[in-house]
């Protein structure tokens, strides 16, 4: 069987995209997903996304981590899926679609920026010795670092130690390390260890969302500009008196890199 695919990236967070409107992709074939995401033996990506039709929405986004298994919400993946749906002619510039964590709205600006509405984050943020924990569609720990430490940090080693500690070992968590800018006009610096990839990625959409919300406790005001190794993102939100957040939007580029076919 020959599989037609597209490769997309959002600030360096890259995905194999499959038009599965005919529902021919076997989502139980974890080995195939792993191979397609393998950077030496396959196409290479942080994850694989199926675009499927849905009776109640414009489309459905089905996201797999690079380990081959279904994942939770992926923010950059969601933005790339919106761009992919636009490329296929499934949507125009606005959409409402369904993902692992529920319904999302999005719109595409004339310059190609994709603005994705994330799920509301309810309740107070949980603070522990690991850092600030919150769920932005995927679970995240945010750890703030002293100035100038982020660039030299061993993100894989430090992130893995938290992801596999006693608290998170069973279900895992993503781990974000963030550095406050020296002046408010500069972006927050963020690096992320992603579960499912089990490595540092160039960017993580739900991760920078988590950092922006956690940073509001440190004086960050919406919209928050953030810089990852793969590029810049923006997170806008409305903070509520009870510690919850609503009207959360993740914004940034979502670009088609190439397309092709592979025997599977």
Question: What is the C-level CATH assignment of the largest domain?
Answer: Alpha Beta
Order of helices and strands: EEHEEHEEEEEEHEEEHEEEE
Give the averaged pLDDT, no decimals: 97
- Number of helices in the DSSP assignment: 4
- Which consecutive residue ranges, at least 5 long each, have pLDDT under 50? none
End-to-end Cα distance? 6 Å
Radius of gyration: 18 Å
Class from helix and strand fractions: alpha+beta
Sheet of most strands: 12 strands, mixed
Helix-strand layout with pairing:
Elements: E1 2-10, E2 13-19, H1 30-37, E3 47-54, E4 57-65, H2 75-88, E5 94-99, E6 102-108, E7 114-117, E8 126-128, E9 131-135, E10 139-145, H3 155-163, E11 174-179, E12 188-194, E13 199-201, H4 205-215, E14 224-228, E15 231-239, E16 245-252, E17 255-263
Parallel strand pairs: 2-3, 10-11, 12-14
Antiparallel strand pairs: 1-2, 1-17, 3-4, 5-6, 6-7, 7-16, 8-9, 9-10, 11-12, 12-13, 14-15, 15-16
3D structure, described in words:
The protein is globular. Strands 5, 6, 7, 8, 9, 10, 11, 12, 13, 14, 15 and 16 form a 12-stranded mixed beta sheet that branches. Strands 4-3-2-1-17 form a 5-stranded mixed beta sheet, with helices on both faces. The model has no long low-confidence stretch (mean pLDDT 97). The longest helix has 14 residues, at 75-88. Strand 6 and strand 7 form a beta hairpin. The protein has helices spanning 30-37, 75-88, 155-163, 205-215, and strands at 2-10, 13-19, 47-54, 57-65, 94-99, 102-108, 114-117, 126-128, 131-135, 139-145, 174-179, 188-194, 199-201, 224-228, 231-239, 245-252, 255-263. The protein has 264 residues and is α+β, with helices and mostly antiparallel strands. Helices cover 16% and strands 42% of the residues. It catalyses: (2S,6S)-2,6-diaminopimelate = meso-2,6-diaminopimelate. This is Diaminopimelate epimerase. Belongs to the diaminopimelate epimerase family.
